[in-house]
Amino acid sequence: xxxxxxxxxxxxxAGVALSIITRKLTIGAALLGxxxxxxxxxxxxxxxxxxxxxxxxxxxGATGLGLKRKQEIGAADENxxxxxxxxxxxxxxxxxxxxxxxxxxxxxxxxxxxxxxGSLAAATADTLSSELGTLLGRRFxxxxxxxxxxxxxxxxxxxxxxxxxxxxxxxxxxxxSIGHGWNSxxxxxxxxxxxxxxVDSILGATLERKHLIGNNxxxxxxxxxxxxxxxxxxxx
Length: 236
What we know:
The protein is mainly α. The chain is built from 8 helices and 2 strands.
């Protein structure tokens, strides 16, 4: 077991180096990502780390897909798909905090791991719906007014993007269930992703458009919502 742990540490370091070399993350973001990965592994085990890696792979792939088209309509990241430390913290910070709690308080490990999955399901749903919805969507609407709006703007959604986000949350839920058993928690995690993504869009259409909060805070609240939804379902 100790040998396997050292292998995980090696792969985390390799992942940090690879993300820098491939320019998927800035140097600061890559180092922060390594710390987040370590905390998720310590609290969530192999299953938690696989879920985190899956979010990163799906998110990076979706971000890089159709980048030219996204730049044309102003929907691309300023760093051309290269994520910053702030973005990494916004998407993975809640999972890292939950991992640290599970590591320090093992009596709460099941709740923390479920909430961790919910937070990453919400992050995945948001990223896929935003990045792929812009490319796949046919009609775009403001989530508050339901009036047609410009794709790429905060709080603008499409049916195709919403369904893509739900599919991303379902992938996270299935991977979690492989490690924890197939039960009602699968549905909870999917709902956590969908609700978190919905909250993200509402915040984007209101507070973010008014420049009261930034996108990183919106994404952090999205993941916090996903974690909270799973906590509430478990308590019911």
